[in-house]
Amino acid sequence: MPKSSKKAALSAWGMSPEQSRAARGWLGWSQDELAKQAHVALRTVASFERGEITPRYNNVVAMQRVIEAAGVRLVFGKDGTAAGILRENSDPDFSGSGGRNR
Description:
This protein is mainly alpha-helical. The chain has helices at residues 3-11, 17-27, 31-38, 42-49, 57-69, and strands spanning 72-76, 82-87. Mean pLDDT is 83; it is low at 1-12.
């Protein structure tokens, strides 16, 4: 399966590699920290984030749960594809004004 198809298939039921990297960056976590928190192998996190593997469902769910428990919300489109991340309890402005009054 091509790399892009693998990512599309994965994000239809869970977090994408890009969301994982972005969430870790926001939390200030290393791949090792995410692996420890989620009780998965470091190789699983690293290979997933490089788009090399589609981990077992339970491993992705474990990683997603600890990220969300730490205050990062994963955002998905109406079709289930990954759309980004948000801070927990944020009130994003999707108007395009960037929060500026016009």
